[in-house]
Specification:
The chain is an alpha+beta fold and 406 residues long. It has helices at residues 11-21, 93-107, 120-123, 172-183, 194-199, 247-258, 277-280, 303-309, 357-364, 370-375, 386-394; strands at 2-5, 46-49, 55-68, 72-84, 112-116, 129-130, 133-140, 147-148, 153-154, 162-167, 212-217, 223-231, 236-244, 265-271, 288-294, 296-300, 316-324, 329-338, 341-346, 353-356, 380-381.
Length: 406
Amino acid sequence: MEIRPTTDQDLDLFVDTLHAAFGRFPEPPKEGSTGWWSALEMDRNLFAVAADGRPVGTAGAYSFELTLPGEILVPAAGVTAVGVLPSHRRQGVLSAMMRHQLTELRARGEVLSVLLASEALIYRRFGYGPATYTRRLTVPRHRGVLADPRAGAPADGPTTGSVEVLRRAECGEILEEVYDRYRRAQPGAVSRPHRWWALGAGQPPVSTAPRYVAVHRDAEGIADGYASYSVGEAETLTVDETIAIDDSVFTALARFVLGHDLVAQVVFKHVPPEHPLRWQLADFRAGEVSGDTDWLWVRLLDVPRALISRGWFTDGELVLDVDDPFLGEHGRYLLTVRDGKADCVRTGREPDLSLDVSDLGSVYLGGTAPSTLVRAGHIRAHRPGAATLADALFRAERPPHCLHWF
């Protein structure tokens, strides 16, 4: 078997091979858009090729920016389109592709890779750990009143700014600008390159599928948030995503969709686990949580460089003993944080924490507390207080969240 890079001429074969791996057929793009695969970067994709020259596996990567704690932007490979034909599974094809890909990413100088895991059991063994989480919130419209906690009564008074309803086809530039502003300040968010918007490659509202968009504008008329939505069966209004520069904008958009006429319930598809919306409901029980799941998985390719790259909010030092069994690597690192900056060097000191590189990926963005993984048996703490200090060190200024599909 050979692992080889793909070219632009391989696009159709790549798409067909990937779909065959999942037992599906490519769906024709909707009018006005292209297939999601039009955003693939063919110079970053791989084929696993059998002895007869036929592709039996695929793996790809997008060129993203990932926002780290401290509003720091770093390049990150968005791993995607990974599949092996059913006839060649459990023969080492996937492991060979993933090992080849990680080697290539390192050669490009990238320190992080990220992905959305189709199955949770697959990617941990390649060093990825779940790092952001999302959930669905369903609110019956007749119980969807937002309360003013200062007055203890429903808040129906005027708000700063305004909301305008547009069609998706009318506001692509607005969506792109608002999302880019939002993602630069949101830990865990990834960039949406312009070509994605231009091609309509992705899920709504990146795709040009028919949607209404509630665009929020501030007092100066500048767009600072949006909610992409549609009304479907059972009089359900489904919000694809709500993008807001701050909580007040999110509240204004939530109030708008919760007040929509002739719908029975409103479904917010992507809500961060600790988002305050449920607490803003006058009836706390009106918000039904479901679909609580992982989203973005993180893999550190260079432990010291990755730890130095993010922002920090507590001073301290930890010795981390990190095992990377997939790449056959092991390292012990002294992490020292002072005044929001980190230094990370190899050390021979006794470790404070021992952990797998996948668990380091899980805690890296601040969305998973190290102490949780200690209690779960994933991380081993070697001295009292080590997990508590790790919790303080790895926290982010706000919970990481990612809602971009790739």
